[in-house]
Each structure stands twice: as structure tokens, then as C-alpha cells.
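Reading a protein record of the kind used here takes only a little practice. The record below shows the convention in full:
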Amino acid sequence: MDITHKIPPQDIRKGALSLYFSYKYFPLWHNFSNYS
């Protein structure tokens, strides 16, 4: 699943904030991985 396409490549802060504010909407057993 792709949360957003609006984060520029290598923008770690925006990626971290996006993941921080969206993780609570996923099931507890969901595994996350991210990449730039």
C-alpha cells in the first residue's frame, strides 16, 4: 500500500511524519517497510 505520492524522494522527515500519523489506522499485525 502506498500512503502518499506527495513526499519528495529522500525527504526523511515528511516520510516519518506520514508514517507516524497513519500507522494507527492499520491492524496491529501489519508490518511496515519504507524506502525512498
About this structure: The helical segments are 12-22. DSSP finds one helix and no strands in the chain.
